[in-house]
Amino acid sequence: MTDWLARLQPGEIPIFRHTHRALAEFGPRREHLAAREIAQEVLADPLATLHTLHTVNKKVAQRYGTEVPTVEHALMMWGIGAYLDAARGLPILETTPAGRDARALKALGVLARRAQHAAWQARDFAVQHSDIRAEEVQVAAILWHLPEMLLWLRAPEEARRLERLGRARPAAEAEMEVLGQSMGAFRLQLLEAWSIPELTRDLLDERHAERARQTILAASLDIARRSERGWWDEGFLAAYNALAGVVNLPVENVIATVHGNAARVARHGDWLAATPSAAWIPMIPGPWPQEPDEEEAAATEAARPAPVQPKPEVVAPGAMAGKSPAPVEAHQAPTPATPAPTPAPVTAPTTQPSAPAPAEEPGHTVCPMPDKQVFRETIRGIEGHLDGSLNLNQMSALILKGLHTGLGLSRILFAMITPDGERVKSRFTLGVPTEDSLRHFEFRLDGKDLFAQLMGKMQGVWINEGNRERLWPMVDPRLQKVIGAGDFYAMSLFNGGKPLGLIYADRGHGECGLDPLTYTDFKMFCLQAARGMAKVKG
Question: How confident is the model at residue 340, as a pLDDT?
């Protein structure tokens, strides 16, 4: 093994300054924190993710012969207080040699941003596929980027060489020359050395590409990589079609979800200097300019002769009286011939003082808007009461609030299995007037209509214009009258293999429609709601 390759083996690893600060701020609240809240910060930092999983799996595998594939589980095994204490002693990336190397730090920031994007897409589509262990796919998307990050961190010269060769040759050739093998094989060997669970390594193994989880993962990684150079690459279509096939949605819905995820992860990772892919979404079609080799550009700039400064013209006193001085052109640094595009700045509209007052617009319906803060607080609230501290009424009220205020849904209904086990009947509602027929929502569990089919396993449906002709006839005619014609979401809730009930939600049947982004959040929320309902007391 070469010296630089040996440097990539397990050992102390730094984390980004932002992560170090965030974990330190958790300290005073450690007694009131859930593992999931800390995991969100750790998962945003690929280096912190690697450190956490490596440390826990090294200890757990040796002691119990088992593996821990998710950060949330790892934190619970470690202990929140003990983890936060240990995190205080971790080195900060920006103070290490790699952090003081501007080129290496920039590359690490780009890779971290890419890992965040891929992980966000992967987890979201895994949830849409009703994967109850979606974080495993999320973690795999993050760790996929670790070989390159470790190269920039511990073997920057080899990382530069790989980058240079990759510009001039196919990636496979560059990898063979620098690594002596493909990046895929190198990745699996490296992650095994770092005690990453076999389950995670299998997700990253290209030999299992036909499986649904691997399809989601591969498409998410491809989208995150391509989108750094704009969103008009024809190669996106293959990823969109692959995701559409797995989650059974139209391609246009998949594209809308992907763009929404890109925007959300950009805001979540705003502490990174690297430009997020979401910045390029508004761009019009066109070729992406060739990116110059930064080292060559720097060398060219260093060799460029200094500009000759013209001698100042001597002017007799008073000769310029009454004249405006000629403009002096400031020296400007040369720019590359084909600079990478930057997002256009958003400027506030200017007010024309002489413009006439606009005509008053006719009244229109004000549609409810999701409150993401309430949504996140409700998720955390359910998580914090999985100890059986809430009864059925209290847990239901918490769930209905998250759907109504957190997701901006107007009419919400929670139907439960009747005591005789034969029917599913409305039990709790929010935003449903007394005279509304939706209050009489009820169906037989052994029926053949759409809602009875949903109760076969934990799954959801979104009735909309694109599928109404096919799915609406599957709804019992009596329930069609109860619901009314319009878009709605519905999802069954299960505790293991036991059905608990069903959640129905819509935004009324007026101008306020539903959208794919809210549907994704709705399904994710229902997964959490099922966990909460399974733990109520009494």
Answer: 45
Cα distances (angstroms) measured from residue 164 to each of 99, 196, 297, 336:
21, 30, 13, 18
Pick from 54, 228, 60: which is nearest to 150 by CA? Answer: 54
The listed CATH number (3.30.2350.10, 3.30.450.40, 1.10.357.10, 3.10.20.740) that belongs to domain 372-533 = 3.30.450.40
**Considering only 5-9, 70-74, 413-417, which range has the smallest mean pLDDT?**
5-9
Please state the domain extents for the chain: 3-222, 372-533
CATH number for the domain running over 3-222: 1.10.3210.10
| β partners of residue 488 | 463
Contact (CB, 8 A) for 107 and 114: no
Q: How far is CA 204 from the centre of its chain?
A: 18
pTM for the structure as a whole: 0.59
Residue identified by tokens 């609240």 is 29
Torsion of CA 247, 530, 494, 248, to 10 degrees: -10
Judged on CB neighbours under 10 Å (0-12, 13-18, 19+), 233 is middle
What is the torsion angle, in degrees rounded to the nearest 10, for the CA atoms of residue 7, residue 8, residue 12 and residue 16?
120
Sheet arrangement for strand 423-430: 442-444, 423-430, 411-417, 498-506, 488-495, 460-463
What is the C-alpha end-to-end distance of the chain, expressed in Å? Answer: 61
3-state SS track over 204-256: CCHHHCCCHHHHHHHHHHHHHHHCECECCCCCHHHHHHHHHHHHCCCHHHHHH
Q: Which residue has the tokens 């971290």?
A: 112
Element holding 63 (H helix, E strand): helix 46-64
Task: Report the C-alpha gap between 530 and 80 in whole angstroms.
Answer: 25
Backbone φ, ψ for residue 488 (5° rounding): -155, 160
73 vs 70: CA distance, rounded Å: 5
Q: Is the pLDDT of residue 342 over 60?
A: no
